[in-house]
Design goal:
Layout lengths: L2 H8 L2 E2 L4 H6 L19 H4 L1 H14 L3 E3 L7 H5 L7 H17 L9 E6 L13 H18 L3 E7 L2 H18 L5 E5 L13 H10 L4 E5 L4 H14 L3 E5 L6 E3 L2 E3 L4 H15 L3 E2 L7 H15 L18 E3 L4 E3 L9 E2 L8 H9 L2 H13 L4 E4 L8 H15 L4 E5 L2 H8 L7 E4 L6
Parallel strand pairs: 1-10, 2-3, 3-4, 4-5, 5-6, 6-7, 7-10, 13-14, 14-15, 15-16
Antiparallel strand pairs: 8-9, 11-12
Helix pairs in contact: 4-6, 6-7, 7-8, 10-11, 11-12, 13-14, 14-15, 15-16
Length: 446
């Protein structure tokens, strides 16, 4: 286990507050400070390293054990919107170095401090068709290369709104650490909206199922809402998730005051909620997201010191008992492998080899009708849907792409990808944000 995970397993970790909140409070020049790239906070690492370092130092001084790098939007894809893709590696590397420099200023007190490489979701969601999977994974991989080179203690993949984006970020991070020969832990934080689901409709159980399949040790929530709105989802993780839990809420739900967003949650209120999460839900890592500032982190530090009964001591996490149910997941919901009726029902009518009707729709390019066949099986009680587009004389990859691109958002149950060709399965997996079942069927006569 890494030094970071050892700490997180033994003591509550306090992370910093929002970077954007502090930056937006400053009177910065678009031309001089942002180098003409309005709203590109990541460029401040290059133009105003003094400012970025100062923000980190402010949070360390407030009592934070870890700070997040100024790299939330520093992937190839997002920086490309500002014509800054070529600076991806260096911006990420330098951002970690600035956070390290800030941490060194406080090394005399003997406390352990960490730097978390912040990886935001970007502006393009693959499950909504904004971007293909592989370019997104490649984008995250280069960002993580820079974070590794700078010496990040962990990757914090945060504000996740789409499970397929989570897969791209996690796999990009794994590529980067494998290439560098280091074992940097990965943390995934999803963002649950006030609707009770991620932006694409994924509930917390489905999100956890997908993240668990990626062998990620820490899952949590951040952004979108305050702690009260997160409490139900944190409770679910506490009772079910087998790993460690983080929670970094906004300072309440934003309100519009004088034309600007205002976050109403006071520091003492945030501390109260985090105390509950620690005591009742056994969380391991706390902090703040949008609207949280120095006073919020000071209040959280004071709460932790009071719980631990010491000036520089952190309390131990409350040990909890969880029960993880092995499952698959669609883009929307979790489906356990073991059902009350003792079997998992795989609907097989969306299979070109077994269904003449599906094959006819496929041949006619009537993809909406193919999806409707899937929906009918769900209504009939299917827990999952077998998808096979192998049909003599047709492009199986092209047909699988058409079907999965529609099925992923058109049905609520997980999919089962069925083919004799590995490249067909790879294509399907690159389109699907859920946790599917993949069947490679041998075409060899034994």
């Amino acid at each position: 286990m890494s030094r970071f995970l050892d700490y997180l397993n033994d003591r509550i970790l306090l992370v910093d507050g929002a970077m954007g909140t502090r930056v937006q409070a400053l009177d910065l020049s678009i031309e001089k400070d942002y180098l003409g790239q309005e709203n590109c906070t990541d460029i401040l690492t290059k133009s105003r390293p003094d400012l970025v370092r100062e923000i980190h130092m402010g949070y360390f001084e407030a009592g934070a054990d870890a700070v997040e790098t100024n790299t939330f939007g520093a992937s190839i894809v997002t920086l490309g919107e500002f014509d800054l893709s070529d600076e991806t590696f260096e911006l990420n590397k330098r951002s970690v170095e600035l956070a390290r420099e800030a941490a060194e200023e406080f090394s005399a007190d003997g406390r352990e401090r960490f730097v978390l490489g912040s990886i935001g979701p970007g502006t393009k969601l693959p499950s909504l068709g904004h971007i293909d999977y592989q370019p997104l994974e490649d984008s995250f991989a280069l960002q993580c290369d820079g974070l590794v080179a700078g010496g990040a203690d962990a990757f914090l993949i945060e504000t996740c709104q789409d499970p397929l984006q989570v897969k791209a970020a996690v796999n990009g991070a794994k590529r980067a650490r494998a290439q560098a020969g280091v074992d940097i832990p990965i943390i995934v934080q999803v963002t649950v909206e006030t609707t009770g689901a991620l932006l694409v409709g994924t509930d917390i159980a489905a999100a956890a199922t997908i993240v668990n399949a990626l062998d990620v040790p820490v899952i949590g929530l951040n952004c979108a809402t305050g702690p009260q709105e997160m409490s139900e989802h944190i409770k679910w993780l506490s009772e079910n998730w087998p790993g460690m839990i983080s929670v970094l809420p906004n300072a309440g739900l934003p309100e519009l005051v004088d034309g600007a967003p205002h976050y109403p949650l006071r520091p003492d209120e945030l501390a109260h909620w985090h105390s509950r999460f620690i005591e009742e839900d056994g969380v391991n890592m706390i902090g703040g997201c949008c609207g949280t500032d120095i006073p919020h982190i000071q209040a959280l530090d004071a709460m932790l010191r009071e719980r631990a009964g010491g000036e520089h001591v952190r309390p131990n996490p409350v040990r909890r008992k969880s029960y993880w149910v092995p499952s698959v997941a669609s883009l929307y919901a979790q489906v356990p492998y073991v059902q009350e009726n003792a079997f998992l029902d795989i609907g097989e009518r969306c299979n070109a080899n077994g269904s003449k009707k599906f094959r006819q729709f496929q041949e006619a390019g009537d993809w909406d009708a193919c999806v409707e066949m899937g929906r009918e099986q769900v209504t009939d009680g299917a827990h999952t849907l077998d998808i096979c587009t192998a049909f003599v004389g047709r492009d199986e990859i092209a047909d699988m792409t058409e079907v999965v691109s529609r099925m992923r958002g058109g049905v609520t149950v997980p999919l089962v990808f069925d083919s004799t060709e590995l490249n067909v399965l790879e294509t399907a997996l690159g389109l699907y944000g859920g946790k599917p079942i993949s069947l490679i069927v041998s075409n060899t006569n034994l």
